[in-house]
Design goal:
Number of domains: 2
CATH superfamily of the largest domain: Response regulator
Largest sheet: 5 strands, parallel
CATH architecture of the largest domain: 3-Layer(aba) Sandwich
CATH class of the largest domain: Alpha Beta
Strand content: 5-15%
CATH topology of the largest domain: Rossmann fold
Structural class: alpha/beta
Length: about 220
Amino acid sequence: MGDSTDAPIRVMVVDDHPMWRDAVERDLEVAGLDVVGVASTGQEALARFPAARPDVLVLDLQIPAPNGVEVTAEVVRQDPSVRVLILSASGEQADVLEAVKAGATGYLVKSASREELLDAVRRVARGDTVFTAGLAGLVLGEYRRLSDTPATPEDGTPRLTERETEVLRLVAKGLSYKQIAERLVVSHRTVQNHVQNTLRKLQMHNRVELTRWAIEQGLDDDE
C-alpha cells in the first residue's frame, strides 16, 4: 500500500455522448486514474457529485440542463477544491469564458489527443491552469470591455497588472508558458501564477458584477 500522496487522481466524466464518454473513461483508467463517476446530464452530474468526490471534473459544456456553466458554478460552490476541466467543441468559446468565470481552471478542445487529455487532467489536478490561446484572447477582450466601463476606485472591481496583461497577451498569441518564461526572463511557475491570478480576478469580476446586480435588483424591489 502506497501512502496517500500516491493515490490516483479521482476523476468524474460528464458528457452526453456515450461513445465519447466511454472512450474518455477508458483512456483515464488505462493511464491509472480513478474514474469515480460518470454522468450524461447536468442533473445527473450534480446528483452524483457529492458521493463521487472527484479531484477533477471533466465536463462537456453542451449537456442537457443544467448546462456546463451552471454545473461548474454549483460544484465549485459545494467543493472549492475541485478542479473543473472543460471539454469544448469549437465555437463554444463564449460559453467557456462563462465557465472560467464560474470557476473552471482548464479548457480543452474535443479534438485533443489522448495524451493531451491525460496531461490536462494531471495538470489541473496539480493546481495548474490549462489555458489555450483562443481563451486567453477572449479573457483579454473581456478585461478590455470591463476596463472601458467607468469604475470608481472603491467599487472593488479587480484590475489586471501590466505584467498580467503582458503574459495574457503572449498566451493569446499562442506562446507556451515555457516560451513566455524565457521571453520575460522569469520562471515557468511565475508565468503560471500570473495566469492563475488573472483567472481568479476574472472570477472575482464576475462576483462583483453579480453582487452589484443583486443590490440593484434589491433596490428595485423597494420601490
